[in-house]
Amino acid sequence: MAKLVKSQTLHLPSVLKTGRLTFLRTHIELIMAALSGVLIIIAWFLMHEGYTTASAGMYITAYLTGGYFKAVEGISNTIKKRDLNVELLMIFAALGAAWIGYWTEGAILIFIFALSGALETYTMNKSKNEISSLLDLQPEEAWKLVDGHEVKVSASSLMPGDIIIIKPGERIPADGFIMKGQTSVDEAAFTGESMPVVKSKASEIFAGTVNLTGAVQAEVTKKNHETMFQKIIELVQSAQSEKSPSQLFIEKFEGRYVKAVLGFTVVMMFLPHYIFGWSWEETFYRAMVLLVVASPCALVASIMPASLSAISNGAKKGILFKGGVHLENLNQIKAIAFDKTGTLTEGKPKVTNWFIRQDLEHSAVLQTTAAIEQQSNHPLAQAVVAFAKEKNISDSIKMDRVEDVTGFGLKAALDDEVWRIGKPDWFDSNMIPHDMLEQIEQLSKEGKTIVLIEKNNEIIGLIALKDEVRQETIDAVKYLKSAGIFTVMLTGDSIGTAAVIQKETGVDTFKAECLPGVKVNEMKKLKEKYGSVAMVGDGINDAPALATATVGVAMGAGSDIALETADIVLVKNDLKKIAEAIRLSKKMNRIVKQNIVFSIAVIALLITSNFFQALDLPLGVIGHEGSTVLVILNGLRLLRAT
């Protein structure tokens, strides 16, 4: 024990040292800006006490401390892009102020400019921290079952087919499905949902989520670099590096604007002296004020902090934007098309109705039916098995023979009995009792799939199944329609089934019996009519339509090609996230417009005031740089937007 304590004590200083270095690297710009502010206050006091030389030294140090990062950034960008930028403009303005004797004002300009730059860096770091926090969720080790023994291995070494043990309180090390045991899992880091999700046999689990209650045994289904966790990281990293059209325009505009300001400043150094009769000192002073107030700092900072904040906010809620351009485009959407299965619906059929002839024992018939269906991997068959389990009916009967009749159903033998379970078309309609025919007709109108049960050439029962509409689908469609967005369902199902789903979901219209090519053509028609359209899907057959849409949205549990093709990914299959994404997009665009209008108005007001000689350099510095800080802070509100 003493040895252990000693070891921990030896490592503590190095841990603290590493922590301090990390803090310094992360906040160095803010620290330097704050230091320059302190130096300005000291210099001002020294100047008022008559220590002129010491005061000048302090001001110069404040210039160097506060302006270092922006000067390096401005010079390197000028060399790299061969164009002027706002950083150089502010350095020129500060040097100009010092040249005409306004040391305090020039230093304050540097200080506030450095502070606004530190805030922008904070926004970038905050966005990157979302990735860092995700990286912290990835377990490095896992308990692998080898020859019946638990062996601790590296999580990165896990391969599909490996069996792992996940104990209560541990993070799940890989994507897979539970083979044995039951537990509840905290998936909040991926989905934004605070309530744990109950997981049992065959339930899907994801790397990075937390096993809360029970020990479970699971089979790994994906390699370490292919997990949903890694996809999230890659998508958010990609989104952070991609700029929106508005940001690209502002950056292109910046270089020309800076040249115009410098050119106009040169003219201002001479023209007012001859036209308005200003003194040379006043003329040069007004030129320096113009250099400060005409700088587009606030305009340049209007978009990027807001965009990064919105992308980070979306990632926390389980909405992954692959770039600012898609976040911006989402605000322009006028129509949304949905795939049906797995998007509007659960994607898993469930038994909704069942009928067995009255003279037979219902539980015995259902037990035999489930035992036969257990031999098939078809979704309808598995739904019947799951239904029997819910009724606590065992499927452990051993059948003598089971034959899969492709396209129709299953045929089985049990002792002297011959059973058939399958679609109505497989059976002689004359053999179906009249009351059962009426039920089939009614249930079919409700969009349900019918499975008939036959024993020794007698139809003895039926089971109706349906792919249920998600409750969140109804809420999402209501929101979209209230926002004036046209909704349409594109599905490969029959017209009857599509009509029922349309009625239940509330979508405006539908197109049934759609092959992938038909979905693409429908998306093109929607684009011609509405301009900007979105497509929401999850399957391989949806990928072409996702690529055709202005904005493609994939469900997180969808196929890999759908996830790759889409512009936005909903980590959890929750369509309400579509509404959240649109609200976030609208709020971001609203904040960006506020920032742009505000920054232009401030620049116009300050320039006008300077021409009327009503603005001194200190007020110009505070007004201009203060507006930049306000614009950045306004953008940062999106980090906590709901």
Automatic annotation (TrEMBL):
Major place of residence: membrane
Entry membrane topology: Multi-pass membrane protein
Segments passing through the bilayer: 30-47, 108-125, 257-276, 288-311, 596-615
Keywords linked to the UniProt accession: ATP-binding, Cell membrane, Ion transport, Magnesium, Membrane, Metal-binding, Nucleotide-binding, Phosphoprotein, Translocase, Transmembrane, Transmembrane helix, Transport
Keyword S-adenosyl-L-methionine: no
CDD domains: P-type_ATPase_HM_ZosA_PfeT-like
Residues in P-type ATPase A domain copies: 137-237
Name of the featured protein: Heavy metal translocating P-type ATPase
